[in-house]
Amino acid sequence: MDKIDRYNELRSKYKYHIDSYNTLYQLNTEDDEGLSTIYKIIQTNLIDSMKYHPENIIKDILDIIPYNNCYEMSYLKLAKLITDEYQVKEVKNLPDISNHLFYKEYGINLSGSNDFDEFNSENIDIYSENTIYNAIMKNDLKRFIIFTERDEFDEDQRLQSKLFPQSSNGYSLLELCCYYGAADCFKLLRTKFNSEITETCLEFSFLGKNPEIMSECLKYQKPNQECMKYTIISHKIDFVTFLMNEYDIRIDLRQCGGYNNLESLLVYFDKTALHYLIGYCFIYSACFNIPSLCEYFISLGTNIIVKDGREALYNAVKYNNKEVVECLLSHGANFYKRQKHQTPILYYAIITNKNKEMAELLISHGANIDERDNDGETIFDIAFKEFEKNRYIVELLISLGAHFNPNFYLINAASSNNLEKIKFLASYNIDLNAKNLRGETSLHIAFQNYFKEITEFFISHGANINEKNQYGETVLHIASDKNNKEMLEYLITHGSDVNAKDRDFKTALHHSTYFKNNILLNFLFCMVQILMQKIKMGKQLFIMQCIILIKKWPSFFFHMVQALTKKMGKEKLLFILQHLKMIKI
Asked: Gene3D superfamilies of this UniProt entry (predicted)?
């Protein structure tokens, strides 16, 4: 088969796939009848015929919005038609802006994310009639002139909005004209304000698809690789070949996969005769959920699956194409020797796509669920860091047999004040008294940071309140160091041993003496009161003027503490420091 025949044959074979995505990326209607027609094309050509998953199609549709945002509502309506027809409740790996727009319009949270605060009205609602951006979008020269003649008009203003491709500096008015193909507004800015034609102007002109603007921009800027990116996104194959032939700019096959432009991949394939470049086509053919396309490239060389199968397999998993993964595995592709820079393949199946079936398929073919990445972390480590967001993933990993040491993660959860993590781990066989390398239990760590709710949870679930760290300190020692009266009372009433000694033979009371202030007096007084209550000695004796009492009769006060603890069967308190120095205010 010669080159012309192979291109035409493949273009014809995958015509419905190519034409469907061309229609989506070049969408230019807000009419409900027109959108209904496009929906039927998608349903027939992609979902029914090619067995594309509806949730993947929804993601593809919503991902287009930043590159054709004047038809934002049309994309949202198409996505809604699919969610209604196929009862789609979740779309994995959906960008936050897409999820926010869909939620704002229909009240449906497709990704489960609640990070909506960052999308304020200023950078989202730019389409209202009273904005200059609306005039540019509609190429309404009369309204645009009115805006430019106002006293407050700033010709150098820039728009920062998540509805456009990401930019740290926002976009100028002339760049927006190029994005929307607004030729009349473009000419006015050039003639009246001499607005500069930037690289972004030329790049956006391939999205706006206005030949007049594109031609003017080419006079001042030379096309670059970013121009090819936006040309691939525009799905205008004549623009692609123009950049290839006139400026020798290569087609980035990674972007062909990312923006569903199979036709550009076929053009690249048509232009090359080098075997290693054919392998490159094979690698990125896996981005499209078309097993027969992968098989076509495999048929071109007996070693292609050995040389490039791993990379193709990675792409198929990244793009959540289970049928392609099955195809590649059946032809002998493997993932055992990943390159140093590569993330373990299960990361994409589980963390990125939350696809249990894909994960089970890979594990059944030898994928190691406990494999560590270049930072020494397992997939479980990564997921557990953001437990609230990834709880489903954490539970999925455990169900798939991931190994994890709950005691290690318990220490981590205690240090980060994460009660949800701790409650989750408590449902497994954990040792609440497990220690880190410093001999600290989770209770020690929680108490050092004064995480009150977590401290109370540990104690109420059986953590040893008198467990010691490497310095022989209990949490009562720590509380004494921190002069925390509230927690001192709590610990004593929950069985903390006031006579426990650290490795220097000091009790918690000794620790308190290093802080010569009213906290010490409160602590001592509190102990007397609590101990008296425990042995039913009646009313508290020191409700009024307790500090005066301690100052006047310190010996009596210390005697009371010792006597009361002795009555309770405790070891006599040791007071090494002089009494008067200990209680000096």
From this structure: Ankyrin repeat-containing domain (1.25.40.20)
Tokens of 565: 């603890």
Do residues 137 and 164 make contact, with C-beta atoms less than 8 angstroms apart? no
The dihedrals phi and psi of 159, each to the nearest 5 degrees, come to -100, 125
| Cα–Cα distance for residue pair 306/315, rounded to 1 Å | 15
Q: Please state the φ and ψ torsions of residue 435, each to the nearest 5 degrees.
A: -120, 155
What mean pLDDT do residues 51-76 have? Answer: 96
- The answer to whether 139 touches 178, Cβ cutoff 8 Å, is no
pLDDT at 559 exceeding the cut of 70? no
- Enumerate helices (H) and strands (E) in the chain, giving the number of each: 36, 2
Torsion of CA 313, 315, 319, 321, to 10 degrees: -30
The secondary structure of the chain in percent helix, strand, coil, rounded to multiples of 5, reads 60, 0, 40
CB 61 within 8 A of CB 75: yes
Q: Which residues make Cβ contacts (< 8 Å) with residue 225, sequence separation at least 6? A: 249, 250, 252
Q: Are 488 and 479 in contact (CB under 8 A)?
A: yes
Listed in sequence order, the residues at least 6 apart from 579 whose beta carbon sits closer than 8 Å to its beta carbon are: 554, 555, 558
Residue 298: its pLDDT value, please? 93
**SS3 at position 158:** strand
- When mean pLDDT is compared across 11-15, 40-44, 147-151, 571-575, the lowest value belongs to 571-575
Give CA–CA dist 262/18, Å, rounded.
6
Instruction: Output the pLDDT for position 546.
Output: 45
Domains and CATH numbers, the chain: 3-119 (no CATH), 123-221 (1.25.40.20), 253-399 (1.25.40.20), 465-583 (1.25.40.20)
Neighbours of 121 (CB within 10 A): 8
| C-alpha span between 541 and 575 (Å, rounded) | 22
Dihedral (CA of 259, 264, 266, 269) sign: negative
Q: How far apart are CA 522 and CA 386, in angstroms?
A: 41
Q: What angle do CA 468, 472, 476 make, to 5 degrees?
A: 65
Within 10 A of 432 (CB to CB), how many other CB atoms are there? 21
Condensed to tens digits (0 to 9), the pLDDT of residues 124-172 reads 666 788 899 999 999 999 999 999 999 999 999 999 999 999 999 999 9
Adjacent-strand bridge partners of 172: 158
Q: How many CB atoms lie within 10 A of CB 11?
A: 16
| Rounded Cα–Cα distance for residues 369 and 563 (Å) | 60
Of 305, 310, 311, 265, nearest in space to 288 by CA = 265
